[in-house]
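Q: Structure tokens for this one, please.
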Amino acid sequence: MLRTALLGAVLLTAVGSTAYASQDPPSPANPQVAPQTPAPGAESEKPQPKRSVAGVYLCEGANPDGSPYRGLVEIVAIDNTYLVKWFMADGAEVLGVGIRNKDVLSVSYFGGTPAVVVYSIDGDSLKGEWTMGGAEGMLYSETLTRMPEEKPSKPRRAKPAAGSLSV
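A: Here is the predicted structure, written as tokens:
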């Protein structure tokens, strides 16, 4: 992390000094234009940091035969990639690896045959389309809904009963 911050500072310094050094001084042929400031009351739109997709999700989808399936999916961030594990209601477990590009998470996995799912990230849900080898060009749907994070509660101390001694 420190190495990344230092590298960023060096790049900003190098790019900034190069940008100023390459500018021609003001002249009638090259007038300097003052930077525009936003109008009073106008808010500048800053890009919002993207929320991590890491977490535990309820998984609901449709099998190739049309029957529904349910399970849990755990997504773990590992640097710029994701480890995705499906725990299905029938006891099956499937492991995949994915990458994120903006609001799309693509995951390759092997559940008996090579397969891929592409999710569109929409807040607390991921809406996916998947296919697998031998599916003859068919696409199937799957939705992941983020499960609420449970915060551990503090253990409560029992109050001693009236007339009892506590140590």
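A few notes: Residues 1-27, 30-35 have pLDDT under 50 and may be disordered. The first strand starts at residue 55 and ends at 62.
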